[in-house]
Input
Amino acid sequence: MLLIVGTVVVLACVILGFVLGGGHLLALWHPTEILIICGAAFGAFIISNPLKVVKASFSGAIGMLKGPRYKRADYVDLLKLLYDILVKIRKSGMLAIEADLESPEKSELFAQYPRILADHHMIEFITDCLRLMVGGNLDPHELESLLEYELETHHKESGEPAHAVQRVADALPGFGIVAAVLGIVNTMGALEGADTATIGHKVAAALVGTFLGILVAYGFVGPMATAMEHRAHEEGKAFEVVKMALVASVRGYAPPVAVEFARKLLFSDVRPTFADLESHLKGKKKEAVAA
Output
């Protein structure tokens, strides 16, 4: 939603300011300039990035039109899932969750949280971490170090699309200059026998190239890259939550305390309050007693 609002504000302010200053909108419409700038930027983008980054960049840009993957309710579910896992381990031992790890989609434990189960990367991360705890015999420091390496790799990979888009934004003013120079070349070639109005039109078309390159770079592509970076950072928090809860458990903390450590990592806008989370966990305890 904010993406659409911001785009409308940028376009409205630029166009309105131009029109109020006595400009004519058709003076800005030069498809050849758009072809040169956008086509060259897209080609450079393809040259400079592997296919996986190209695909991730487009899917990430489209994903900005949707809401964040993890909202407050999703984090509550994630914390409840971690609590259920840690309680089962504490009551029945590490080997009790082996069947859940082998087939999470068939596990009654994971099936209670379909939104988490639908996130393939998250489920893979959780099950891999738990397998290390089951068979790795790692002490808390070794486990935490290993998970930090994995999260560092994940954060770097998830941030690549935003960095790739930002490099396009940095290059767009240069491609605007390229379009302007080509426009001036055309103007110079048409000087002989041309009247003042024709020359003025061609020079204006060349200047539009510079204008479009700067506008698209700083008004759209650059902000999009920043928004994608923020989104990747926010989504990475879910993995840090899992790491914190599991490491705290290995250190010997009880499940409620381990989950509280994980809750503290969340940003304030999505972090459930202590009382809210406790009420959810107490609800889980009552269900378990009733069963």
Notes: Residues 1-18+29-173+219-291 form one domain. The longest helix spans residues 196-250. The chain has one domain: 1-18+29-173+219-291. The radius of gyration is 27 Å.
